[in-house]
């Protein structure tokens, strides 16, 4: 053991004791418990993922002991316990069931162990601000002899990547340092003067050198935007490669990512595939959060109250601005070219323009209600809500172009980010609601209240066509050419026949074509079709997901076609009146026949000064 453990108010120990049963064993020693009866609780949510998850539900057989005697524990609510009054050191022991493969929770089997502190560590009331130690032990048995540890947690008495003692300054830091154990692939590069590790779990054949080279460029792009890295000793990208998956969660000195192994770059391949571009965008997004949301934060998050929902209307700035810079950094760092970036941007515009919910919910309301709406989406989501990620990123784009234009290219959104870092993130000062909006008015040098009233608190579409023109980019809208058309490119149909669509999202089903989402006022909804219906025949002939669209497009606009569909187990007939598909699919083009000032503005926007 470490020589003087008394300096640690709480000493945790965690062992993946039973990987086959997905059980971690945790102990927690409290040296000076509250003599009136020590309270303990598990978080209800994890920062960065705004949904109540009640991590206490996975805590099994919690026991307390003092002086070799069992101590009574009383459960006070769904997440809180209280020990009987006691003045001696208390040892708590419990197990946590860990079988959720996501970046937000904990997962343990015979191949690896992963946990977020919020899923495994009890909060000791009254000791949240005290230093704590964490003893990380390997599972028992020869088959685990080659397991290592990847985490950004501070070493106390452990080798780098080794099992042993780690430490955290307080509970907030403890639960913001996820840990991976196993036989991951490891590579390291340097950026901002500190080592950055990439640890990949899961079978893969990734070109680690290329990944290091590209991530180094992205990290340096963000570091030079903010001017410096926050004070951290090392940064860790914890990546879980699976067959099909996508997700990321930001932390103060690391990020947990879930990706498809097909998105990793292969040895000997040098093109940026769509999948690799998606992965780099995700890494870029989470790394940008190292400043924006992990340190530049809403005042409501200082400190985090992990026992219940914490509302803020500001997530557009933390997720939207981050979503704007994630792909922008790919083109600014030279990893992708302008055409590739415009394709990504147009796909984001398409996602926003396709949701009728954007006229019913504002981005500010989407942020405030994320706990019950954005994070709990059902089949109505496209009709009822807007995403503060996608529309938030378009607000950021519009602001960036507005600032550049208003200041004759002397200032940009980058200046806001630097200001937020210097004045708020670095000194640990939280942002009051609407404070960013006031700062932006100052930066632009004009009252921006109308902009926010229209696009953030209101539900108007952003004036992107006009704004993109200032940087010599042409904005086009067309009809979707198929249900799988994500936008970003001109239409590939050469005939001039207008496209017809159902006004629904469709998935394959063994019985036919399953409607997963039915859009407001589209032909499907007008005919009475609903989400969950399975279309089995069109005009009396059997159909499925693969041929439904093609067959619909063999009719003319204003034709009415009979559709047979199962609702539950009842066969129903609907009359589908066909209409032209809406112009909701965007693509962008560089327009070089514009004034020199527009070309210069574009180069400045993309950090590509000639
Ligand atoms: Zn994010």
Structure description:
The chain contains 16 helices and 29 strands. With 610 residues, the chain is of the alpha+beta class. Strand 17 and strand 18 (194-201) form a beta hairpin. Helix 5 (315-332) packs across helix 9 (390-406) and helix 6 (338-353) packs across helix 9. The N and C termini lie far apart (59 Å). The structure holds zinc ion. Zinc ion is lined by residues 250, 285, 289, 319, 322. Zinc ion (ZN) is lined by residues 250, 285, 289, 319, 322.
Map the helices and strands.
Blueprint: E1 10-18, E2 23-30, E3 39-41, E4 59-66, E5 69-71, E6 73-77, E7 80-83, E8 90-97, E9 106-108, E10 112-115, H1 117-120, E11 123-124, E12 132-136, E13 148-150, E14 154-158, E15 164-168, H2 171-174, E16 179-182, E17 185-191, E18 194-201, H3 208-226, E19 235-242, E20 247-250, E21 254-260, H4 274-288, H5 315-332, H6 338-353, H7 363-368, H8 381-384, H9 390-406, H10 413-425, H11 435-444, H12 449-455, H13 464-469, E22 473-479, E23 504-509, E24 512-518, H14 523-527, E25 534-538, E26 541-542, H15 545-552, E27 560-567, E28 570-577, E29 583-590, H16 596-605
Parallel strand pairs: 1-12, 18-19, 19-21
Antiparallel strand pairs: 1-2, 2-8, 3-7, 3-11, 4-5, 4-8, 6-7, 9-10, 10-16, 12-15, 13-16, 14-15, 17-18, 20-21, 22-29, 23-24, 24-25, 25-26, 25-27, 27-28
The protein binds zinc ion.
The site of zinc ion has 5 residues, from helix 5.
């Amino acid at each position: 053991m470490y020589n003087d453990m008394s300096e640690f108010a709480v000493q945790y120990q965690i062992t993946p004791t039973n990987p086959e049963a997905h059980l971690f064993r945790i102990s927690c020693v409290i040296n000076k418990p509250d003599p009136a009866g020590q309270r303990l609780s598990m978080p209800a949510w994890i920062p960065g993922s705004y949904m109540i998850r009640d991590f206490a539900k996975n805590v099994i057989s919690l026991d307390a002991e003092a002086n070799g005697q069992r101590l009574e524990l009383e459960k006070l609510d769904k997440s809180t316990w209280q020990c009987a009054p006691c003045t001696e050191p208390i040892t708590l022991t419990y197990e946590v069931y860990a079988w959720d493969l996501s970046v937000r929770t904990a997962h343990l089997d015979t191949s690896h162990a992963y946990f977020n502190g919020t899923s495994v560590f009890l909060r000791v009331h009254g000791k949240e601000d005290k230093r704590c130690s964490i003893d990380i032990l390997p599972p028992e048995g020869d088959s685990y002899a080659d397991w290592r540890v990847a985490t950004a947690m501070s070493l106390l008495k452990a080798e780098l990547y080794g099992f042993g003692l780690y430490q955290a300054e307080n509970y907030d830091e403890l639960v913001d340092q996820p840990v991976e154990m196993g036989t991951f692939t490891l590579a390291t590069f340097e950026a901002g003067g500190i080592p950055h590790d990439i640890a990949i779990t899961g079978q893969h054949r990734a070109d680690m050198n290329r990944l290091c080279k590209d991530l180094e460029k992205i990290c340096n792009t963000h570091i030079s935007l903010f001017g410096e890295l926050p004070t951290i000793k090392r940064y860790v990208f914890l990546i879980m490669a699976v067959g099909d998956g996508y997700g990321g969660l930001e932390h103060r000195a690391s990020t947990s990512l879930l990706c498809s192994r097909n998105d990793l770059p292969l040895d000997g391949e040098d093109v940026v595939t769509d999948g690799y571009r998606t992965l780099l965008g995700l890494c870029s997004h989470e790394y940008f959060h190292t400043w924006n949301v992990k340190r530049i934060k809403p005042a409501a998050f200082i400190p985090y109250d992990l026992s219940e929902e914490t509302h803020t209307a500001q997530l557009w700035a933390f997720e939207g601005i981050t979503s704007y810079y994630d792909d922008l950094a790919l083109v600014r760092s030279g990893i992708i070219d302008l055409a590739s970036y415009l394709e990504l941007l147009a796909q984001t515009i398409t996602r926003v323009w396709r949701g009728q919910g954007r006229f019913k919910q504002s981005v500010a309301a989407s942020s405030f209600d994320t706990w019950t709406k954005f994070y709990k989406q059902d089949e109505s989501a496209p009709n009822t809500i807007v995403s503060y990620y996608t529309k938030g990123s378009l607000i950021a784009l519009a602001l960036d172009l507005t600032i550049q234009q208003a200041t004759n290219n002397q200032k940009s959104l980058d200046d806001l980010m630097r200001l937020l870092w210097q004045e708020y993130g670095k000194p640990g000062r939280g942002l009051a609601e609407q404070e960013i909006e006031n700062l932006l008015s100052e930066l632009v040098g004009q009252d921006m209240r109308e902009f926010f009233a229209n696009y953030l608190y209101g539900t108007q579409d952003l004036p992107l066509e006009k704004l993109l023109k200032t940087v010599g980019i042409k904005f086009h809208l067309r009809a979707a050419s198929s249900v799988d058309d994500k936008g970003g490119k001109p239409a590939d149909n050469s005939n001039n026949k207008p496209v017809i669509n159902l006004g629904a999202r469709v998935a394959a089903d063994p019985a036919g074509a399953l409607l997963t989402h039915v859009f407001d006022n589209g032909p499907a909804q007008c005919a009475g079709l609903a989400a969950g219906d399975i279309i089995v025949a069109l005009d009396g002939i059997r159909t499925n997901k693969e041929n439904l669209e093609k067959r619909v497009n063999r009719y003319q606009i204003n034709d009415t076609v009979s559709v047979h569909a199962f609702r539950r187990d009842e066969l129903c007939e609907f009359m589908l009146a066909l209409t032209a598909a809406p112009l909701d699919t965007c693509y962008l083009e560089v327009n070089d026949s514009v004034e020199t000032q527009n070309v210069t503005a574009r180069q400045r926007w993309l950090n590509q000064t000639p």
